[in-house]
Structure prediction request, 654 residues.
Amino acid sequence: MKKSPGEFQLIARLCADLPRGKRTRLGPGDDCAILAPARFAQLVTIDSMVEGVHFKLEWGSPQVIGARALTVNLSDIAAMGGVPTACVVNLAVRPGLDMAFFDKLYAGLREMAVATGVDIVGGNITRASQLAITVTLLGDGRDGILRRDTAHPGDAVYVTGTLGDAALGWRILDGKIRARGGVRKYLTDRFLKPTARLAAGRALARMRPAPAAIDISDGLWQDLGHILERSCAGAEIDADAIPLSTLYRALMGDDLELALGGGDDYELLFCTPPRLSDAALSRRLGVPVHRIGSIVAGSAAVLRRGEAAQNLKVPRLKGWDQLRTPD
Amino acid sequence: MKKSPGEFQLIARLCADLPRGKRTRLGPGDDCAILAPARFAQLVTIDSMVEGVHFKLEWGSPQVIGARALTVNLSDIAAMGGVPTACVVNLAVRPGLDMAFFDKLYAGLREMAVATGVDIVGGNITRASQLAITVTLLGDGRDGILRRDTAHPGDAVYVTGTLGDAALGWRILDGKIRARGGVRKYLTDRFLKPTARLAAGRALARMRPAPAAIDISDGLWQDLGHILERSCAGAEIDADAIPLSTLYRALMGDDLELALGGGDDYELLFCTPPRLSDAALSRRLGVPVHRIGSIVAGSAAVLRRGEAAQNLKVPRLKGWDQLRTPD
Prediction:
C-alpha cells in the first residue's frame, strides 16, 4: 500500500537522531535494518498494546504509553535472562491524534530505549481505527538463557517484587475501585510504569543450573501454569507467602484474587533449588525476592493456606468463544 | 494484559507443528524465541496489513491474506539481497471471525513460510476492532547486502517484472475499474498474490559493486525518490521504457499513472553500471528486467517521453494532515 506523506513524516520523526550502538550497521531509512553478526544466541519477542484493550489515552501521558510499549517486551527478554539489543516498531495510527501526541509517545519510547541500551532500528506506520503500538525486540543470551521448561521437583518457586498491584492500579484507572492521592499514584504507576527486571534476569541467567523462569504478565497462577505445563511438573504454593504490598493489603486485605490472577505485574517467577535464603537471592538479583512454594511431581498447582489446600486448576485452553474482555 | 483462553488457543494453533530450521533453537511457547548465533549480518523488517486499509476480507481467501502478510516482508528482505530466516507474527483479532477463518489464514502464512525457508518462531494475539497482521521478518546478508544509498551517476536504472498491474488489480477489487474473467484474475492476483523477488535480490547482492536497490511497494516514482534522496543523486527515466503488461496496456493504454504511482508491485528497482544487456541481466536474475533510465548528478527525477521532458518532483514530506486514504 502506497504510503502518504504524513506516514513518511511519522516514520522520519520516530527515527530521527536516534542514538545507535555498535551492533547497528544501518538504522531506519532502508527496506530493512542491518545488524552486525551475532556472537550469542538471539532472543526474539513481539508484543502489542492496543488502545481500548490494553490502555486508554486518558490514563496516562503519551510518553508513558510509548515507554510501556517497549517495557512489556523488555520484560520478555528479562524473563529469558537476556540483554535487549534492538527493536522495530509498528505504529497503527487512528484519526484524531496530532503530531505533538506522537512526538511525546516517541519521546517515551526513545527514553526507555536509551535507558535499556536498545537501538530503535526500524519502524512502520499504518492507518487504523485504533491506536496500536507493536514492538519486536531482539536480545541476546550472553549470560545464559532462562526457559520455562526446566523446572524440576525439589526446586523452590520464587517471585520478585510484590504481586497484584498493577491489576489493582488497572481497576483504579478503569473506575472499578476507588483510591486517591498517593495510594492511587503508587498503584496506577505499577500498571502504567512497570519495571522490566532486566538485571535480575541476567543475574538468574548466570546461575547454574539455569533456573526456569517466566515473567508474570498474565497473572501468577496462569504464568505458573505455563511453567508447569512446559516442565511437566506440579507446584505447591503457600498463599501466605505471596508477597503483597502494604497498599494492596490496605485495599484488598487477604483477598489474593488480583495477586494470583490479575496480570500486568511484569515481575519474574523462577524455579531453582533452594540453596540461598530469600535475603541472599534478593541481594544477588538486586530486587526483593520471596519464596512462595515448591515444584513437585505431577501436574497440579495446589494453593495452601495454613492447613487448607485448595487445588486450583491450571488454566485450560478453551474455545474461541472464550476470547473475551478482561474480568 | 491477562490473556484469555481463546487467545492462548489462537497462539497454539498458529504455532502448532511448525517446521523448524537449524537456526531455531526454541520456537513459540516461551517468553522469547531463541535463535542460534548469526554468522552473517542480520536484516530486520516489520510490516503490517490492516483490514479496511490494506485489504478487505471479501477480496480474497484467508489463505491469501495470510500469505500476503509474509510476502510484503519477504519483499523487504529481497530488496536488501537477503535470505529470509525467521519471523514473529502479531495478530490483532476482531470479533466476528471464527477459528476456521484463522486456521485458513495461518495455513496461507505457514505455506509461504515453508516455501521461502522461514521459521515462524513466535506470535502474539491481541483483541482489536480491526483484523491486523503484523510480521517482523529476520534475514541475513550471506551474499552481500543491497542498500538504497549507493546509486551513482552513470548507473542505469532497472526494474524487474511489469509495473502498475497490482494497483490496477486493487482498483478492480475496490470496484473503481471494471474487468472480468481472465483479465480480472490476472490483475487482482498481481495485487493479492505478489511475488517477493528473493532469488533476484540474492543474485543482485552477489554483483560487485553491489547495486543500489529498493522494492517498489509505494510506487515506482516514490520509491525511486527514496533511492535518489538516500544516494544524493538525480535520475532520468524514459517513459516509453517502463515495462507494462499487455493487460495493463489493454485497460490503461499509454496512461502511466498507476505504473508510476500505484504501489503494491513488490518488484525490485535497482541501479548498477550498464555492463549487461537487459536479456543477460534477466537471465542472471531469473526474472524479466528492463532498463528504464539512468542515474544523473543533481537531485531531480525527470521523466522523458520522446523529446518532451517532464520534471516530476520527488515526493516531499508533508504535514500530518496529509495522512489520508489512498487515491
